[in-house]
């Protein structure tokens, strides 16, 4: 298991956008299982009006996808490290396709992301996976793409 302190050493993200709490399983260049606990104290719930119904507190889908992407980043970055290599550039979550949401995530839920690297092509990783609360699926990601952009590339200077 990789705890939150170690994840902070892997990812450059910090509060409020660090969205991976623990790594339960990790198999280099293959697959990872992570968790993200959703709390009613998340910044996305700040300033909400009183008296809103349950559906108003559904965790934003964009943050669910971001948490999934960060899980993929941990998998890829730690895999590179196991070979004694380091990342020469910036890891960017480029795209997600064939994403299906099965049910909303609510405060009090712990999301479990299970994802795998389908293929590595140069500085590109192709990922897929599913996210669950308990045994219930909440999201399926058919394809996600992460890329490594060299430091100083035009996309980073914009």
Summarize the helices and strands and which ones pair or pack:
Blueprint (H helix, E strand, L loop, with lengths): L3 H7 L11 E6 L3 E7 L23 H22 L7 E12 L8 E12 L2 E10 L2 E14 L4 H4 L1
Antiparallel strand pairs: 1-2, 2-4, 3-6, 4-5, 5-6
Care to describe what's here?
There is one protein chain. The protein has helices at 4-10, 61-82, 154-157; strands spanning 22-27, 31-37, 90-101, 110-121, 124-133, 136-149. A 6-stranded antiparallel beta sheet has the order 1-2-4-5-6-3. The protein contains 3 helices and 6 strands. It has a single domain (4-157), classed as Thiol Ester Dehydrase, Chain A (Roll), CATH 3.10.129.
Which structural traits does this protein have?
39% strand; 6 strands; alpha+beta; globular; single chain; Thiol Ester Dehydrase, Chain A; six-stranded antiparallel β-sheet; 158 residues
The gist of it:
The chain is of the alpha+beta class and 158 residues long. The chain has helices spanning 4-10, 61-82, 154-157, and strands at residues 22-27, 31-37, 90-101, 110-121, 124-133, 136-149.
Count of individual helical segments: 3
Sheet with the most strands: spatial strand order? 1-2-4-5-6-3
* CATH topology (level 3) name: Thiol Ester Dehydrase, Chain A
Helix content: 10-25%
Give the beta-strand count.
6
Q: Unreliable runs, pLDDT <50, ≥5 residues?
A: none
Work out the count of structural domains. 1
CATH superfamily: Hotdog Thioesterase
């Amino acid at each position: 298991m990789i705890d939150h302190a170690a994840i902070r050493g892997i990812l450059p993200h910090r509060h409020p956008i660090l969205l991976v709490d623990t790594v339960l399983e990790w198999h280099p260049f293959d697959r990872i299982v992570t968790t993200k606990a959703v709390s009613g104290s998340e910044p996305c719930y700040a300033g909400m009006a009183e008296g809103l119904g349950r559906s108003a507190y559904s965790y934003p889908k964009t943050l669910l996808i971001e948490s999934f992407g960060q899980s993929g980043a941990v998998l890829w970055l730690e895999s590179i490290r196991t070979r004694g290599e380091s990342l020469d550039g910036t890891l960017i979550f480029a795209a997600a396709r064939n994403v299906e949401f099965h049910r909303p995530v609510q405060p009090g839920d712990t999301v479990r992301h299970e994802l795998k690297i389908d293929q590595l092509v140069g500085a590109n990783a192709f990922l897929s996976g599913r996210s669950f609360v308990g045994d219930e699926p909440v999201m399926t990601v058919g394809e996600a793409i992460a890329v490594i952009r060299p430091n100083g590339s035009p996309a980073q200077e914009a």
